[in-house]
Amino acid sequence: MGGLIGTRNNTCTGAPGVFFKISLAENDAMVKTYSRYVGIAFCLLFLQTNSMLPLGNHGIRPDLLLFIILNATVTLSVVHCACIVFIIGYTFDAVSGSPVGLFISTYLLIFGTITLLRRFYNFNTWIEMFGLLLLCLIVKYIALFFFLCFIYEYHYNTILKTIFNEALFTIIVFPLVFPLIQKALNHNLTPGTVFAPKNSHGA
Amino acid sequence: MFHFFLKRKRFFFFSLLIILCVALITLGVDKKQKQFPAEKALQSFFSYPLSLTTWVFNTTSALWNGYVYLVEVEKRNTGLQQEMNVLLLENQQLREHFLENQRLKALLNFKQQFSYHMLPAEIIGRDPSSWFKTILVNRGTEAGVTRGSGVVSPFGVVGTVLETTLHSSKILLITDQNSAIDILAKRSRVRGILEGLSENACTVNYVIKSEDIQKGDEILSSGLNAIFPHGILIGSVAETNNTPDGFFKNIAVIPAVDFSKLNEVLIVLTTSTTTAVEEKSSRPTRE
To answer: Between chains, do A105 and B123 touch, taking CB under 8 Å as contact?
Structure first.
């Protein structure tokens, strides 16, 4: 019984026509992981979109989806995470007024940066996660600045103002929302650490 | 060969995603491009819980304000507020029509007349990003909303319909940098193109330096293209200056609508297009 996409721990048979070999239990776990991440991402997007909630009707909103991308990139395998990031980015593009592909590309760039960094660091503590968030914000704004200024011809002074406000709002909200996301995703926490040191899903 | 791909599957997978992104961005640059079905489905998917939340919130607040807090006063106040909003809009249009009537009597036969129908809609969501200024409303193609329709409020112009699904529509606000509306200044009748700048500011482009436009001048919709009725207030001029180089003035406009407090809008549906000349000629005569 095989699935479409395998985790990094799966054995590759190399036989023609068999790309990955996944057990039924692994397949179920994979579906659960996807559902959980996408479900939480949808809830966060709902919160961000809702006009009734006091989350900045003045146009500046925190990027709550960045937290789940951060979590997924540090926790899941590369292929799974890329798929989840793509789904989240596409949904964001569909709901917001942005051109299609803008946030998919931005989030994939963030994902790529963290994946590269994971070769050298293990992001286990809160301070490391906070540092990673700052780095993600920098990558995000560089990408958005490039896309908006050079492809969509936005005024750069407006972009800079929005960057400052959004970054500030996101950093303020991070300690409140990120633990909730982790709790919802049932990560095994150890005191003083964000993730268990040896994660079974980890790359 | 197969092993070559298999060994580098992650690289190829990531490359495929990048290619997909580039393709999507390339398609997205074309603003006339229609929404993908998946996008429509996702927008619809989000519109239902958002409508429900708005309904629950409005019902609860109406229950509190109407029955618990102040039974009669609140009801009366709401009624008067609604009446005042309608009258405000009507007054703006009448004033503009009066001025127009005086100036263009001779050309009346050539003037195009549009019949507008206003469809009230409730705001159910706002753009999740800080970069784009859009809102979601609870009216879609089922109610007759089409892409490109104008959206106004009793206080002035709000924006245009960007995308529609069956029960919801995405509105591009005039403050978004992708928005462009044909305008005219009320006092001097100077024409220009209003473009969004930031959260609470717009700019008027293509007004040459010699034109008479001053701080405090009211900016109105020109009525061209039949997206908005003629003479609806858009905002007022906050600042003008002439740059040493270039042909045009720099004009900053503050929108008349406070978008952060906006809860309901009116979608402008054009029902028919006739000209006075045509109308006159089509009338049965006794001669």
So the answer is: no
- The total number of structural domains that make up chain A: 1
Q: Cβ A14–B6 below 8 Å, yes or no?
A: yes
CATH number at residue B204: 2.40.10.350
Q: B47 and B165: one domain?
A: yes
Residues B135, B63 within the same domain: yes
In chain B, which residues have pLDDT < 70?
1-2, 5-6, 28-34, 65-71, 102-115, 199, 271-287
pLDDT digit string (tens) for A62-108?
889 999 999 888 888 888 888 899 999 999 988 888 888 889 999 99
Whether B13 and A112 lie within 8 Å, measured CB to CB: no
Structural domain boundaries enclosing A93: 26-184
How much is the ipTM here?
Answer: 0.75
Instruction: Identify whether B284 is part of a domain.
Output: no
Q: What distance in Å separates the CA atoms of residue B226 and residue B113, rounded to the nearest whole number?
A: 9
Is there a single domain that holds both residue B71 and residue B114? yes
> What separation in angstroms does the CA of A80 have from each of A6, A33, A35, A197, B272?
8, 9, 12, 20, 53
> Which member of B36, B57, B132 has the closest CB to residue A96?
B132
Q: Note down the domain range covering B141.
A: 37-170+263-272
pLDDT confidence of residue A4: 36
Reported as a pLDDT band with limits 50, 70 and 90, residue A191 is: very low
3-state secondary structure B51-104: HHHHHHHHHHHHHHHHHHHCHHHHHHHHHHHHHHHHHHHHHHHHHHHHHHHHHC
Residue A83 placed within a domain: yes
The model carries a pTM of 0.76
Q: How far apart are CA B102 and CA B108, in angstroms?
A: 10
Is residue A63 domain-resident?
yes
Please list, in sequence order, all residues whose beta carbon lies within 8 angstroms of the beta carbon of residue A46, skipping any fewer than 6 positions away: B46, B49, B50
Partners of residue B127 in chain A, C-beta under 8 Å: 49, 59, 61, 96-97
Domain assignment present for residue A130? The answer is yes
Minimal Cβ distance to B197: which of A51, A155, A165: A155
What is the least distance, in Å, from the CA of A95 to any CA of chain B? 5
Q: What is the CATH number of the domain that holds A166?
A: 1.10.1760
| C-alpha span between B16 and B35 (Å, rounded) | 22
> What pLDDT digit, counting tens, does each position of B238-259 carry?
989 887 777 888 899 999 998 8
A13-37: average pLDDT: 67
If asked whether residues B70 and B191 sit together in one domain, one would say no
Is B194 part of a structural domain of the chain? yes
Total domains in the fold of chain B:
2
